[in-house]
Amino acid sequence: IHLILRSVYPKSLEKVTQEDLYEVVSNINSLKKKKYKGKTPNEMFIEHYSLTLLKKLSLRVYKSSEVVLLPYIHF
What is the rounded CA–CA span in Å between residue 31 and residue 61? Predict the structure, then answer.
């Protein structure tokens, strides 16, 4: 996960907003993982807790095929 974050964000996180972080984490957690038998971290969280709690944490669920992780550009 650290390597994915580093591929998106520059070394300095000074200009990165909390909302930007939520968006990237939501995308990362929507990627399927072998260790979860093809499920996403979001799916595992929802199974153990709830979608309501995930949303209260300001996170979103995306389809794995719709995940976008591009380098961060702050305007």
Answer: 10
Nearest to 12 by CA among 69, 58, 59, 72: 72
pLDDT tens for 13-47 read 788 888 888 888 899 999 999 988 999 999 999 99
Residue type, 56: K
Residue 72, in any domain of the structure: no
Tell me the residue range of the domain where 53 lies. 2-61
The answer as to whether 27 is a domain residue is yes
For the chain, first and last CA: distance in Å?
Answer: 25
Q: Global pTM?
A: 0.79
Within 10 angstroms of residue 2's Cβ, the number of other Cβ atoms is 6
Q: How many domains does the chain divide into?
A: 1
